[in-house]
Write a structure and sequence with these properties.
176 residues; mainly alpha; Rna Polymerase Sigma Factor, Chain: A; Arc Repressor Mutant, subunit A; 2 domains; 8 helices
Length: 176
């Protein structure tokens, strides 16, 4: 990285060869529900790395720095996708989750989906936008035309509702 900062563009090729496969694997693990292309995110990461190369501190480990950039690229992509998600995309993501994670994961996902369905729509939307899609409370408030504090409250109450519903469904039934 230090060589690249000094203008050695062959060093960029070395970085790319060393980190691109690791980043692709990282993004594959993160993208189960998004349906995004990990190669696009690898490219975004290296673009941001290029733009931010002056912020790297020589002598420090480069991997954590690169993965911090990758996480930022992932979160930005997630936010972009959340703003334009459609119900059909969500249904395809559920099907993909069921295929890739096994029957038990699908069963748990369906339980979660049923529990989410029992939460009031205002709380459910705030909870999902924040906890699943990574929106800030300010962005949620703006989108729903409410204050930031109200969006925090809705998400918090939605989370409490979800916890209560899931706890109730996990309690064993009496066989008497």
């Amino acid at each position: 990285m230090e060589r690249y900062q000094e203008g050695d563009y062959a060093a960029f090729e070395d970085l790319y060869g060393r980190f691109a496969p690791r980043l692709a694997a990282y993004f594959r693990r993160q993208l189960l529900l998004l349906g995004a292309n990990e190669e696009d995110l690898v490219q975004d990461t290296f673009l941001q790395l290029h733009r931010s190369r002056h912020t790297y501190l020589p002598g420090r480990p480069v991997a954590p720095w690169i993965f911090a950039i990758a996480r930022h690229a992932y979160l930005m992509d997630r936010r972009r996708r959340a703003r334009r998600i459609s119900p059909e995309v969500g249904e395809r993501a559920l099907e993909r989750l069921g295929r890739e994670s096994g029957e038990e994961a699908l069963h748990l996902r369906l339980q979660l989906e049923a529990a989410l369905g029992r939460i009031g729509p205002a709380r459910r939307v705030a909870l999902l936008l924040h906890d699943l899609w990574g929106w800030t409370f300010g962005e949620i408030g703006e989108r729903l035309d409410i204050g930031e504090g109200a969006s925090k409250l809705r998400a918090s109450r939605g989370r409490a509702d979800l916890r209560r519903i899931l706890t109730e469904s996990a309690e064993p039934e009496d066989d008497d």
